[in-house]
Amino acid sequence: MAVEVRVTAVLQKITGGKKSVPAEGGTVDQLLKNLDSNYPGFLHQVQGEDGRLHRFVNIYLNDEDIRYLDRLETPLKDGDVVSILPALAGGA
Amino acid sequence: MTVQVYIPTPFRRLTGNRTRVEAEGQTVGEVLRRLNEHYPGFNELLYDESQAIPAHINIYLNNREIHSLQGEETPVADGDEVAVIPAIAGGSGTALRPDQVTRYSRHIIMPQVGPVGQRKLMAAKVLVVGAGGLGSPVALYLALAGVGTLGLVDFDVVDLSNLQRQILHQNDDIGRPKVVSARETLNSYNPDVKVVTHEVPLTSENALEIIPQYDIVVNGADNFATRYLVNDACYLSGKPLVDGSILLFDGQASTYIPGKGCYRCLFPEPPPPGMVPSCAEAGVLGALCGTIGSIQATEVLKLILGVGEPLVGRLLLYDALSMEMRTVKTRRDPKCPLCGDHPTVTELIDYDAFCGGPPHVANAPVAAG
Q1: Which residue stretches of chain B have pLDDT < 50?
Q2: Would the CB atoms of B250 and A8 count as touching at under 8 Å?
Q3: Closest by Cβ to B327, choosing from A54, A63, A91
């Protein structure tokens, strides 16, 4: 499935500065692996060694947190927008 | 009919310090009389010896004084707000002075605010954690709006690098404590605001003493440990929290009401130290502070006035480069260790250790950031 992936500032360093990149995958898990093959190091930013998502990174399918859908197995369809959002703390 | 009743400050000792309570009734009079069933003693405060509401207490239905409607016989509908506003000498609850009517005229002429709303703002007490990039615009707009009491928590002093974005501080303030500089700026704009300075780091030792003194808390902190501390302390104290954060060209904002989700529901664990940079490490566009800070101030004002839909259940995402604003849905996580169905966090913890740093030492001197 051809999906648009949006990333915030910290992850943009890995996508060559782009905030929105196309990617492929039938599920979120496949999508992340596809992103990692195009942008080496991507998976490390969002997943631990055990293949589980970091708990300070949230992923949204359109505007729903995938934690409340099927997590990494959440199915995707053409035209979906997946947003990857690490926590940010700056305020001062 | 189920309505909300706005409780003025002098009556809140009867309602467990709550500003608003739910009540039932078909008319304004019935709603008020039935309050005594849940909050014994209410009748003694509200009615005089002849069981009438005395002249110095005004009752408003949806911001309209009931004498201009049908008095206590005015019927109410689901979702209405009945406000009890006494006029007492000194402090909040007095009628607006002529200069205040002029100062706040742009508020008062709005139906959603009016003189009743303005007096709610003047009776409100808001704590702003951090007098820096976000804390500055939040505190400033709240002071301009007439929020009666503003608490500021910051142990830092003003540094030249702050002046790119921290609008409460100016050149002559370099080296001075931020809360002192902030108080002077805020009172130069609005002398009526009582600015309470807490020139201390917010810690597990003092958070549950400071936060309960206020109605609403705004997070303008710059590190994860403080974010989790403020979140937990607000939940444990039953206070709404208006959160915001910024980095580079991105901003986020959300509002947490105890019972409807919290920061831990959104981000159960912080990133390991060093993985997410601070503003000092990665930078931030100064104007972003104004955008997100103004959004936070707006959320606070909406909560005090009881208007609009606050960002509860939503996380606002702002991308300044593309000038896009989006929201994603958030919710209370039933497994949240703080606010879920089976909480395991029931008191404040060592947040420095939680965030992977060296354990917190009470009363240790902390270097200015």
Answers
A1: 89-93, 364-369
A2: yes
A3: A63
| A4 within 8 A of A81, measured Cβ to Cβ | yes
- For residue range A6-25, what is the model confidence (pLDDT) as tens digits? 998 778 889 998 989 999 99
Domain, as residue range, for A15: 2-86
Hey, which bits of chain B come out as E strands?
2-6, 20-24, 57-61, 64-65, 81-86, 125-129, 149-153, 194-198, 216-219, 241-247, 250-256, 314-319, 324-329
Give the domain B124-354 fold. Rossmann fold (3.40.50)
Q: Name which of B247, B296, B321 to mutate to probe chain A: the one with the most chain A Cβ atoms within 10 A of its Cβ.
A: B247
pLDDT of B259 reads: 93
Largest Cα–Cα separation, chain B? 68
pLDDT for the residue numbered A8:
81
Output the CATH code of domain B2-90.
Answer: 3.10.20.30
Beta-carbon contacts of residue B206 (< 8 Å; ≥ 6 apart) = B200
C-alpha angle with apex B243: B233 to B312, nearest 5 degrees? 95
Contacts of A8 in chain B (CB under 8 A): 250, 317, 319
Domain residues of chain B, as ranges? 2-90, 124-354
pLDDT at residue B92 in the model: 45
Question: Cβ of B276 and A87 within 8 Å?
Answer: yes
CA distance A67 to chain B (A): 10
Q: Cα–Cα distance between B32 and B9 in angstroms, integer?
A: 16
- Looking at residue B369, what is its pLDDT? 31
Q: What is the structure's pLDDT at B175?
A: 97
A50 contacts chain B (CB < 8 A) = no
Would you call B328 an interface residue with chain A, using a CB distance cutoff of 8 Å?
A: yes
pLDDT score for A25: 95
Q: Give the total number of structural domains in chain A.
A: 1
Q: A89: pLDDT confidence band, cut at 50, 70 and 90? A: low
Q: Could you tell me the CATH number of the domain that includes residue A17?
A: 3.10.20.30
Q: Give me chain A's average pLDDT, please.
A: 89
The answer on pLDDT for A92 being more than 60 is: no
Place of tokens 């189920």: B2
What ipTM was estimated for this complex? 0.81
Is residue A91 in a domain? Answer: no
